[in-house]
Design brief:
Distance between the termini: 45 Å
Strand content: 35-45%
CATH class: Alpha Beta
Shape: globular
Radius of gyration: 16 Å
CATH topology: Protein Transport Mog1p, Chain A
Number of domains: 1
Largest sheet: 7 strands, antiparallel
Number of helices: 3
CATH superfamily: Mog1/PsbP, alpha/beta/alpha sandwich
Order of helices and strands: HEEEEEEEEHEEEEHE
Length: 196
């Protein structure tokens, strides 16, 4: 039962991060690297050349280096554009219908194809359930869009625009406040370096 309760937030994060929005490549060979298994497609890098330690994630293939304040977890995700996603942030109780003592990192970080902020702003605003919350700003020289999506648990998102891939950080608002989520995302965005 505990395994099922721990899987529920991961599945929720997959759906919210858009991992299942892109179909997996059909009949494509999988390439095994030391750190991940990803489909061989034109959108995924041939190898995920990650480096770092428990609090530093870097990848020249993805074009980013990120410093976290707590240890992060890298999760293989063949359905995701980059083949991986990261769980990060302070540990929070697992959301469950039944009592549990389980904890999971509060936030999710996914990589998406690089897109222009001008086009993406309009797309996000048109599709967000709370379009009035969509804002555009600069953080440490990076173009950033933040927004909220409504639902049973409000989802807070921050997208950082890059040359190779964009970064999307997200959170379910059931266990944290809006100020806490967006503040944490901004703090992480300030540590990011673009690797061109």
């Amino acid at each position: 039962m505990k395994k099922i309760l721990l899987i529920i937030p991961v599945i929720t994060i997959f759906v919210l991060a858009g991992c299942f929005n892109k179909p997996a490549a059909q009949n494509q060979p999988l390439e095994q690297t030391a750190t991940s298994t990803i489909p061989s497609t034109s959108t995924a890098p041939a190898q995920i050349d990650t480096y770092g330690d428990a609090k530093l994630f870097g990848s020249k293939a993805l074009g980013w280096e990120i410093k976290f304040t707590e240890p992060y977890q890298k999760i293989d995700c063949p359905e995701c554009i980059a083949g991986i996603y990261l769980l990060f942030g302070p540990l929070r109780p697992v959301m469950s219908l039944e009592p549990t003592n389980g904890k999971t990192p509060a936030y999710n970080l996914n990589f998406t194809e690089a897109r222009s902020i001008k086009n993406e702003f309009g797309i996000i605003k048109a599709n967000a359930t709370m379009p009035e919350t969509v804002t555009q700003k600069k953080i440490s020289g990076f173009d950033v869009i933040t927004w909220k999506d409504g639902g049973e648990c409000e989802n807070r998102l921050t997208e950082v625009f890059g040359a190779k891939y964009n970064i999307v950080m997200s959170s379910l608002g059931c266990t944290t406040t809006e100020k806490e989520d967006f503040g944490y995302f901004e703090d992480i965005a300030k540590t990011i370096k673009r690797l061109d």
